[in-house]
Hints:
It is a multi-pass membrane protein. This protein has eight helices and no strands. By secondary structure, it is mainly alpha-helical. The protein has one domain (10-202). Helix 5 (100-122) runs parallel beside helix 7 (164-177).
Amino acid sequence: xxxxxxxxxxxxxxxxxxxxxGVLAFAMSGALLGVRKRFDLFGVLVLGCVTAVGGGAIRxxxxxxxxxxxxxxxxxxxxxxxxxxxxxxxxxRLARFERTLSIFDTAGLGLFAASGALGALxxxxxxxxxxxxxxxxxxxxxxxxDLIANEVPEIMYRSEQLYATAAAAGALTVWLLxxxxxxxxxxxxxxxxxxxxxxxxxxxxxRLPVRRLPEDTPQG
Length: 220
């Protein structure tokens, strides 16, 4: 009796914990960029929160799930504020490590891409819809973050470090595994795929092709 009641509670709790960890990680990523840009406390909090919930909000709006999840469940906003506040408080120490922002960003990317794909599956979308929703959940907040901070979004030019492609691969993994494993296992596996692709791409083992135009020749 107790085992039958415990299993679904554990599954739901596990999925929620993964989501909140993703929110916390993305919030710290966005807030740390704000610290590096010398934003004030309000600016850091806004940038962190937008990074944390922006991708999910876009996904929910496109799939008709309104208001977005972070407005229906304010726990996500509290987690975003916590991550942003931690980044502001300890930003001077964290900023000493060049890879800190990338670590938090990669953690959030994997967890959000997998979570978005799982949500799309529950909504009944097909494989392309699942991949698109998962990718958008992963990269949407980072794109908004970069635009607010006056940065060129990474997904537009960082071919040597897979970003949107990694998010899409993670979402596809969730779609492939979903019929055969538990939702928690599918989501965690999708996140691991994203982390793995980001790791090998940062070491230069794989990258997307870039079209190189011939250099302009001097006139006359």
